[in-house]
Design a protein that fits this description.
- This protein is α+β, with helices and mostly antiparallel strands and about 375 residues long.
- The protein has three domains: about 5-95, Beta Barrel (Thrombin, subunit H), CATH 2.40.10; about 100-205, no CATH class; about 260-320, no CATH class.
- Helices cover about 20% and strands about 30% of the residues.
- It has helices spanning about 85-95, 145-155, 185-205, 235-245, 270-275, 280, 325-345, and strands at about 5-10, 15-20, 35, 45-55, 60-65, 80-85, 100-110, 115-120, 125-130, 140, 165-170, 180, 225, 250, 260-265, 295-300, 305-310, 315-320.
- The strands form five sheets. It has a six-stranded antiparallel β-barrel. It has a four-stranded mixed beta sheet with strand order 9-8-7-11, with helices on one face.
- Helix 4 links the parallel strand 13 (about 225) and strand 14 (about 250).
- Helix 2 packs parallel to helix 3.
- It is flat.
């Protein structure tokens, strides 16, 4: 993560680095993470052990890196510096203010032979749960105030749920609520079931988007021709591209209709760049610019050779090769058998592992 640019290096000392910040209001903190690109365009990290203000008016700072300056490759005057770790911002995110919950109201009722809890959230969703509580098991509270506080405390214990208690009240249908002591186990079980019911109610009431009608006429595809790289291997894919205006559709590579050399893999990783043989790296270097060409290279693994071609404009490396005759022959045979089976309506058998009878070259 390169972060955001904050300024440039003014001076590099024995164990410190002076920075000129683009925004004079930017504040650096102990523990912040900085980074920059070296001459090879690779990201180098710099952790701040201590940060000191030189001039707040000018926006200049002196930072003491955690690591030795000798390990910070190509750090020099004029290098642009980014910040990818802001301790102050992380501290703000860790505060309770970043916790978002849904307020709920709890209403407890003691009935003749049961106790009932109704939860209502701020969006108007409601769920009710009832548990048996025989009158013979009830006990009077020694202290009404403490008993009521006990009930509220148990109902407000919402833990890691998406809810937060807005208020909790209680009423009695056929019993004197304020003179009863409700066990914590009963209240906790009642609360858990009510919360689960309310979450289910919210999920049920969540509005579902309807599927948008198909665009007619279909949106045109950006290109009017596709190579084997589009991987069109069945009639459904062919019809899809044809419906969207593609005129020329080449079959997928697995169709074995590309006998010559083709790009087997296209990567952003570049061998030339890794070996410092990239023409872009030589740009602006006296005595080198113009002499480094993006000529093909070869990957050699035993008797197998693959050509590497370089497309510098999009910065891509192509691994070029062709299908081996033995692989092509076996693939054609398997395709023919599959087509014949489908034409005759023969059911296909799927195996968890490849049977020994089908083991062959290239598999």
């Amino acid at each position: 993560n390169p972060g955001l640019p904050i300024g440039f290096v003014l001076q590099v000392g024995s164990n410190w680095v002076d920075l000129d910040l683009s925004d004079h209001g930017t504040v650096l903190h102990n523990g912040d993470g900085l980074c920059y690109y070296d001459l090879q365009k690779e990201l180098v990290g710099l952790a701040i052990n201590r940060a000191e203000t030189i001039s707040a008016k000018k926006g200049t700072w002196r930072v003491y890196p955690k690591d030795a300056l000798a390990t910070l490759k190509d750090l020099r005057k004029g290098v642009e510096v980014n910040r990818n770790r802001d301790v102050d911002w992380l501290h703000v995110l860790s505060k309770k203010s970043s916790d978002r919950r849904i307020g709920i109201w709890a209403h407890l009722q003691v009935l003749t032979e049961s106790v009932q809890l109704t939860l209502t959230d701020e969006d108007g969703h409601s769920a009710t749960t009832q548990l048996p509580w025989p009158a013979t098991e009830r006990q009077k509270a020694n202290n009404e105030t403490e008993a009521l506080n006990h009930i509220r405390a148990q109902l407000n214990r919402l833990g890691n749920t998406i809810f937060i208690a807005a208020s909790a009240d209680g009423s009695s249908a056929k019993a004197d609520f304020h003179h009863l002591f409700l066990p914590a186990s009963l209240l906790n079980n009642l609360r858990r079931q009510a919360v689960a019911a309310l979450e289910a109610e919210r999920a049920t009431a969540l509005p579902r988007w309807t599927r948008a009608p198909a665009v007619e006429p279909p949106a045109p595809y950006p290109e009017d021709s596709l190579s084997y790289l589009a991987n069109v291997f069945n009639t459904a894919a062919h019809r899809f591209y044809a419906r969207h205006g593609v005129k020329v559709i080449a079959p997928a590579y697995e169709s074995i209709e590309e006998p010559g050399e083709v790009s087997l893999m296209i990567t952003k990783h570049c061998v030339r760049f890794s070996l410092s043989l990239c023409p872009k790296q030589a740009k602006g270097v006296t005595g080198v610019q113009g002499f480094v060409k993006a000529e093909p290279l070869q990957l050699i693994n035993g008797k197998e050779k693959l050509t590497l071609r370089f497309d510098c404009k999009p910065c891509e490396m192509h691994v070029v090769g062709k299908m081996k005759p033995a692989v092509a022959k076996q693939s054609r045979s398997e395709l023919a058998d599959a087509c014949a089976a489908l034409a005759q309506g023969v059911s296909m058998t799927f195996y968890k592992t490849r049977p020994a009878s089908l083991t062959g070259f290239g598999h």
